[in-house]
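Q: Could you predict the 3D structure of Histidine kinase?
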Amino acid sequence: MARGKPSLTPLDALWQAPALLWMLAAGETVALILALAPGAPGSRLEVFGLSSLVVQWILVVNLVALYALRGWAEKLRPMSIAYLALVLLLGATFVVMQAVGLFFPGWTTLGGQEDGSATARALGIALAVGLLGLAAFHNHWRGRLNAIRAKQSELQSLQARIRPHFLFNTLNTGAALVHERPGEAERLLLDLSDLFRAALAGPRKIPLGEELGLARRYLEIEQLRFGERLQVRWELPREIPPVSVPALSIQPLVENAVRHGVERMAHGDIEIAVSTTPDTVVVRISNPLPPPAPGGHDGHRVGLHASQARIEALTGGRGSVRTEVVGGRFVATVRLPIREE
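A: Sure. Here are the predicted C-alpha coordinates for Histidine kinase:
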Protein backbone atom coordinates (compact mmCIF):
# COMPACT_ATOMS: atom_id res chain seq x y z
CA MET A 1 0.00 0.00 0.00
CA ALA A 2 1.26 3.46 -0.81
CA ARG A 3 1.91 5.90 1.91
CA GLY A 4 0.37 9.35 1.94
CA LYS A 5 3.01 11.98 1.52
CA PRO A 6 3.19 14.17 4.60
CA SER A 7 2.01 17.72 4.15
CA LEU A 8 4.79 20.08 5.20
CA THR A 9 3.97 23.24 7.11
CA PRO A 10 5.92 26.43 6.28
CA LEU A 11 8.22 25.84 9.27
CA ASP A 12 8.78 22.20 8.30
CA ALA A 13 9.79 23.30 4.80
CA LEU A 14 12.15 25.91 6.23
CA TRP A 15 14.49 23.28 7.71
CA GLN A 16 14.78 21.36 4.44
CA ALA A 17 18.11 21.50 2.57
CA PRO A 18 16.73 23.26 -0.56
CA ALA A 19 15.27 26.09 1.54
CA LEU A 20 18.52 26.54 3.46
CA LEU A 21 20.52 26.63 0.23
CA TRP A 22 18.19 29.25 -1.25
CA MET A 23 18.56 31.42 1.85
CA LEU A 24 22.33 31.07 1.68
CA ALA A 25 22.29 32.09 -1.98
CA ALA A 26 19.98 35.04 -1.26
CA GLY A 27 22.33 36.25 1.49
CA GLU A 28 25.33 36.04 -0.81
CA THR A 29 23.40 37.95 -3.48
CA VAL A 30 22.68 40.78 -1.03
CA ALA A 31 26.37 40.86 -0.05
CA LEU A 32 27.38 40.99 -3.73
CA ILE A 33 24.99 43.89 -4.41
CA LEU A 34 26.46 45.81 -1.45
CA ALA A 35 29.99 45.19 -2.72
CA LEU A 36 29.13 46.39 -6.24
CA ALA A 37 27.15 49.42 -5.09
CA PRO A 38 28.73 52.81 -5.97
CA GLY A 39 30.63 54.45 -3.13
CA ALA A 40 31.40 51.24 -1.23
CA PRO A 41 34.40 51.94 1.07
CA GLY A 42 37.61 49.90 0.64
CA SER A 43 38.20 47.18 -1.88
CA ARG A 44 35.09 45.49 -3.25
CA LEU A 45 36.41 42.04 -2.35
CA GLU A 46 36.85 43.11 1.27
CA VAL A 47 33.38 44.68 1.31
CA PHE A 48 31.90 41.48 -0.13
CA GLY A 49 33.62 39.28 2.46
CA LEU A 50 32.60 41.43 5.44
CA SER A 51 29.05 41.96 4.15
CA SER A 52 28.69 38.23 3.51
CA LEU A 53 29.77 37.50 7.09
CA VAL A 54 27.26 39.97 8.53
CA VAL A 55 24.39 38.83 6.30
CA GLN A 56 24.94 35.15 7.10
CA TRP A 57 25.06 35.90 10.82
CA ILE A 58 21.72 37.70 10.47
CA LEU A 59 20.27 34.62 8.76
CA VAL A 60 21.66 32.31 11.46
CA VAL A 61 20.23 34.43 14.28
CA ASN A 62 16.88 34.59 12.47
CA LEU A 63 16.74 30.81 11.97
CA VAL A 64 17.70 30.15 15.59
CA ALA A 65 14.92 32.47 16.78
CA LEU A 66 12.36 30.76 14.52
CA TYR A 67 13.49 27.33 15.72
CA ALA A 68 13.23 28.42 19.36
CA LEU A 69 9.66 29.66 18.75
CA ARG A 70 8.59 26.73 16.55
CA GLY A 71 6.32 25.14 19.18
CA TRP A 72 4.26 28.32 19.46
CA ALA A 73 4.60 29.41 15.83
CA GLU A 74 3.25 26.12 14.44
CA LYS A 75 -0.15 27.06 15.89
CA LEU A 76 -0.31 30.16 13.70
CA ARG A 77 -1.73 30.47 10.22
CA PRO A 78 0.86 30.22 7.42
CA MET A 79 0.74 33.95 6.59
CA SER A 80 1.06 34.82 10.29
CA ILE A 81 4.22 32.70 10.39
CA ALA A 82 5.55 34.69 7.42
CA TYR A 83 4.90 38.01 9.22
CA LEU A 84 6.59 36.62 12.31
CA ALA A 85 9.64 35.67 10.24
CA LEU A 86 9.81 39.23 8.87
CA VAL A 87 9.69 40.72 12.38
CA LEU A 88 12.39 38.31 13.57
CA LEU A 89 14.52 39.20 10.52
CA LEU A 90 14.41 42.87 11.49
CA GLY A 91 15.20 41.97 15.10
CA ALA A 92 18.13 39.77 14.05
CA THR A 93 19.46 42.56 11.82
CA PHE A 94 19.35 45.05 14.69
CA VAL A 95 21.07 42.66 17.11
CA VAL A 96 23.86 41.72 14.69
CA MET A 97 24.49 45.32 13.65
CA GLN A 98 24.68 46.40 17.29
CA ALA A 99 27.18 43.60 17.93
CA VAL A 100 29.22 44.72 14.91
CA GLY A 101 29.24 48.29 16.21
CA LEU A 102 30.32 47.06 19.65
CA PHE A 103 33.15 44.77 18.57
CA PHE A 104 34.19 46.60 15.37
CA PRO A 105 33.66 50.30 16.04
CA GLY A 106 33.85 52.54 13.03
CA TRP A 107 33.05 49.72 10.58
CA THR A 108 31.04 51.23 7.69
CA THR A 109 30.78 48.50 5.09
CA LEU A 110 27.05 49.13 4.65
CA GLY A 111 27.69 52.73 3.81
CA GLY A 112 26.86 54.32 7.14
CA GLN A 113 29.03 57.11 8.43
CA GLU A 114 28.49 55.92 11.98
CA ASP A 115 27.06 52.90 13.79
CA GLY A 116 23.52 54.29 13.97
CA SER A 117 23.45 55.12 10.27
CA ALA A 118 24.84 51.68 9.34
CA THR A 119 22.18 49.98 11.49
CA ALA A 120 19.38 52.04 9.94
CA ARG A 121 20.66 51.23 6.43
CA ALA A 122 20.85 47.52 7.26
CA LEU A 123 17.31 47.57 8.65
CA GLY A 124 16.07 49.19 5.46
CA ILE A 125 17.75 46.56 3.33
CA ALA A 126 16.37 43.75 5.54
CA LEU A 127 12.86 45.22 5.33
CA ALA A 128 13.02 45.46 1.53
CA VAL A 129 14.31 41.90 1.15
CA GLY A 130 11.80 40.62 3.71
CA LEU A 131 8.84 42.25 1.95
CA LEU A 132 9.90 40.69 -1.35
CA GLY A 133 10.11 37.30 0.36
CA LEU A 134 6.71 37.88 1.99
CA ALA A 135 5.10 38.67 -1.36
CA ALA A 136 6.67 35.56 -2.93
CA PHE A 137 5.46 33.36 -0.08
CA HIS A 138 1.95 34.84 -0.27
CA ASN A 139 1.70 34.02 -3.97
CA HIS A 140 3.13 30.53 -3.40
CA TRP A 141 0.73 29.70 -0.57
CA ARG A 142 -2.30 31.09 -2.40
CA GLY A 143 -1.39 29.00 -5.45
CA ARG A 144 -0.97 25.92 -3.24
CA LEU A 145 -4.43 26.35 -1.69
CA ASN A 146 -6.01 26.95 -5.11
CA ALA A 147 -4.40 23.72 -6.33
CA ILE A 148 -5.77 21.87 -3.29
CA ARG A 149 -9.28 23.22 -3.93
CA ALA A 150 -9.10 22.27 -7.60
CA LYS A 151 -7.98 18.76 -6.66
CA GLN A 152 -10.78 18.59 -4.11
CA SER A 153 -13.38 19.38 -6.78
CA GLU A 154 -11.88 16.77 -9.10
CA LEU A 155 -11.96 14.10 -6.40
CA GLN A 156 -15.51 14.99 -5.38
CA SER A 157 -16.57 14.46 -8.99
CA LEU A 158 -14.82 11.09 -8.95
CA GLN A 159 -16.51 10.11 -5.70
CA ALA A 160 -19.89 11.02 -7.17
CA ARG A 161 -19.32 8.28 -9.74
CA ILE A 162 -18.25 5.79 -7.04
CA ARG A 163 -21.21 6.26 -4.64
CA PRO A 164 -23.74 4.32 -6.80
CA HIS A 165 -21.73 1.16 -6.02
CA PHE A 166 -22.46 1.64 -2.31
CA LEU A 167 -26.06 2.71 -3.01
CA PHE A 168 -26.88 -0.39 -5.06
CA ASN A 169 -25.36 -2.70 -2.46
CA THR A 170 -27.31 -0.99 0.30
CA LEU A 171 -30.63 -1.15 -1.56
CA ASN A 172 -30.06 -4.83 -2.32
CA THR A 173 -29.38 -5.48 1.36
CA GLY A 174 -32.50 -3.53 2.33
CA ALA A 175 -34.62 -5.50 -0.13
CA ALA A 176 -33.38 -8.76 1.38
CA LEU A 177 -34.25 -7.56 4.91
CA VAL A 178 -37.72 -6.13 4.24
CA HIS A 179 -39.63 -9.37 4.83
CA GLU A 180 -37.34 -11.17 7.30
CA ARG A 181 -36.19 -8.25 9.46
CA PRO A 182 -38.28 -5.15 8.69
CA GLY A 183 -36.95 -3.25 11.71
CA GLU A 184 -33.37 -3.53 10.49
CA ALA A 185 -34.45 -2.61 6.96
CA GLU A 186 -36.02 0.58 8.29
CA ARG A 187 -32.87 1.43 10.25
CA LEU A 188 -30.78 0.80 7.13
CA LEU A 189 -32.86 3.23 5.07
CA LEU A 190 -32.68 5.90 7.79
CA ASP A 191 -28.88 5.54 7.97
CA LEU A 192 -28.67 5.75 4.18
CA SER A 193 -30.81 8.91 4.23
CA ASP A 194 -28.46 10.57 6.75
CA LEU A 195 -25.40 9.70 4.66
CA PHE A 196 -26.80 11.07 1.42
CA ARG A 197 -28.14 14.18 3.12
CA ALA A 198 -24.59 14.90 4.30
CA ALA A 199 -23.19 14.18 0.82
CA LEU A 200 -25.66 16.52 -0.90
CA ALA A 201 -25.00 19.36 1.56
CA GLY A 202 -21.63 20.07 -0.13
CA PRO A 203 -18.28 21.09 1.40
CA ARG A 204 -18.73 22.40 4.94
CA LYS A 205 -17.46 21.96 8.46
CA ILE A 206 -19.33 19.87 11.00
CA PRO A 207 -18.51 18.79 14.58
CA LEU A 208 -16.20 15.79 14.83
CA GLY A 209 -18.88 13.91 16.76
CA GLU A 210 -21.31 14.33 13.85
CA GLU A 211 -18.72 13.11 11.33
CA LEU A 212 -18.02 10.05 13.49
CA GLY A 213 -21.78 9.51 13.64
CA LEU A 214 -21.89 9.38 9.83
CA ALA A 215 -19.05 6.85 9.86
CA ARG A 216 -20.96 4.79 12.45
CA ARG A 217 -24.13 4.83 10.30
CA TYR A 218 -22.11 3.68 7.29
CA LEU A 219 -20.61 0.81 9.30
CA GLU A 220 -24.05 -0.21 10.60
CA ILE A 221 -25.22 -0.53 7.00
CA GLU A 222 -22.16 -2.58 6.04
CA GLN A 223 -22.51 -4.81 9.10
CA LEU A 224 -25.99 -5.72 7.94
CA ARG A 225 -24.50 -6.69 4.57
CA PHE A 226 -21.40 -8.55 5.80
CA GLY A 227 -22.77 -9.97 9.05
CA GLU A 228 -20.09 -11.65 11.19
CA ARG A 229 -17.45 -11.07 8.51
CA LEU A 230 -17.10 -7.47 9.70
CA GLN A 231 -16.11 -6.59 13.26
CA VAL A 232 -15.82 -2.94 14.38
CA ARG A 233 -13.92 -1.67 17.41
CA TRP A 234 -14.28 1.92 18.62
CA GLU A 235 -11.83 3.59 20.99
CA LEU A 236 -13.32 6.95 21.83
CA PRO A 237 -12.66 9.35 24.71
CA ARG A 238 -15.41 9.96 27.26
CA GLU A 239 -16.19 13.25 25.51
CA ILE A 240 -15.59 13.85 21.81
CA PRO A 241 -13.33 16.95 21.43
CA PRO A 242 -15.34 20.00 20.27
CA VAL A 243 -13.47 20.50 16.99
CA SER A 244 -14.76 20.97 13.46
CA VAL A 245 -13.96 18.66 10.59
CA PRO A 246 -14.83 18.81 6.86
CA ALA A 247 -18.01 16.85 6.21
CA LEU A 248 -17.38 13.38 4.78
CA SER A 249 -13.63 13.49 5.33
CA ILE A 250 -13.35 10.58 7.79
CA GLN A 251 -16.23 8.46 6.46
CA PRO A 252 -14.48 7.82 3.09
CA LEU A 253 -11.46 6.43 4.96
CA VAL A 254 -13.78 4.06 6.83
CA GLU A 255 -15.44 3.14 3.54
CA ASN A 256 -12.06 2.32 2.03
CA ALA A 257 -11.19 0.18 5.04
CA VAL A 258 -14.29 -1.88 4.25
CA ARG A 259 -14.08 -1.96 0.46
CA HIS A 260 -10.34 -2.58 0.16
CA GLY A 261 -9.79 -4.50 3.37
CA VAL A 262 -12.68 -6.46 4.87
CA GLU A 263 -14.55 -6.99 1.60
CA ARG A 264 -11.58 -8.95 0.19
CA MET A 265 -11.27 -11.22 3.25
CA ALA A 266 -13.27 -14.01 4.83
CA HIS A 267 -13.15 -12.15 8.16
CA GLY A 268 -11.85 -8.72 9.04
CA ASP A 269 -12.04 -5.96 11.59
CA ILE A 270 -11.86 -2.18 11.56
CA GLU A 271 -10.49 -0.11 14.44
CA ILE A 272 -11.41 3.56 14.86
CA ALA A 273 -9.60 5.41 17.66
CA VAL A 274 -9.72 9.07 18.70
CA SER A 275 -7.03 10.65 20.88
CA THR A 276 -5.89 14.18 21.68
CA THR A 277 -2.72 16.17 22.26
CA PRO A 278 -2.65 19.74 23.58
CA ASP A 279 -2.99 21.12 20.03
CA THR A 280 -4.30 18.27 17.89
CA VAL A 281 -7.06 15.69 17.66
CA VAL A 282 -5.88 12.42 16.12
CA VAL A 283 -8.27 9.96 14.44
CA ARG A 284 -6.83 6.58 13.41
CA ILE A 285 -8.63 4.11 11.14
CA SER A 286 -7.00 0.73 10.61
CA ASN A 287 -7.89 -2.49 8.82
CA PRO A 288 -6.05 -5.73 8.05
CA LEU A 289 -4.23 -5.97 4.74
CA PRO A 290 -5.89 -8.39 2.30
CA PRO A 291 -3.91 -10.37 -0.29
CA PRO A 292 -2.49 -8.10 -3.01
CA ALA A 293 -4.99 -7.18 -5.72
CA PRO A 294 -4.23 -8.26 -9.31
CA GLY A 295 -1.84 -5.76 -10.85
CA GLY A 296 -0.92 -4.33 -7.44
CA HIS A 297 -3.66 -1.67 -7.56
CA ASP A 298 -3.87 0.45 -4.43
CA GLY A 299 -7.57 0.87 -3.79
CA HIS A 300 -7.15 3.13 -0.77
CA ARG A 301 -5.88 6.03 -2.86
CA VAL A 302 -9.20 7.67 -3.91
CA GLY A 303 -10.65 7.97 -0.42
CA LEU A 304 -7.28 9.06 1.00
CA HIS A 305 -6.80 11.84 -1.54
CA ALA A 306 -10.40 13.03 -1.22
CA SER A 307 -10.16 13.25 2.57
CA GLN A 308 -6.73 14.88 2.45
CA ALA A 309 -7.94 17.52 -0.02
CA ARG A 310 -10.96 18.39 2.13
CA ILE A 311 -8.99 18.59 5.36
CA GLU A 312 -6.13 20.67 3.90
CA ALA A 313 -8.50 23.04 2.10
CA LEU A 314 -10.83 23.68 5.06
CA THR A 315 -8.07 23.89 7.71
CA GLY A 316 -5.75 26.15 5.72
CA GLY A 317 -3.13 23.41 5.39
CA ARG A 318 -2.92 22.82 9.17
CA GLY A 319 -4.66 19.43 9.14
CA SER A 320 -3.32 16.31 7.45
CA VAL A 321 -4.03 12.71 6.46
CA ARG A 322 -1.17 10.22 6.48
CA THR A 323 -1.06 6.48 5.92
CA GLU A 324 1.31 3.69 6.84
CA VAL A 325 1.44 -0.07 7.19
CA VAL A 326 1.97 -1.22 10.78
CA GLY A 327 2.03 -4.86 11.83
CA GLY A 328 0.19 -6.07 8.75
CA ARG A 329 -2.51 -3.40 9.02
CA PHE A 330 -3.22 -0.38 6.84
CA VAL A 331 -3.50 2.68 9.10
CA ALA A 332 -4.88 6.09 8.07
CA THR A 333 -4.15 8.87 10.59
CA VAL A 334 -6.12 12.14 10.49
CA ARG A 335 -4.73 15.12 12.43
CA LEU A 336 -7.03 18.06 13.10
CA PRO A 337 -6.01 21.35 14.75
CA ILE A 338 -7.88 22.06 17.97
CA ARG A 339 -7.44 25.81 17.62
CA GLU A 340 -9.55 27.36 14.87
CA GLU A 341 -7.96 29.79 12.43
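Q: Anything worth pointing out?
A: Residues 1-7, 108-113 have pLDDT under 50 and may be disordered.
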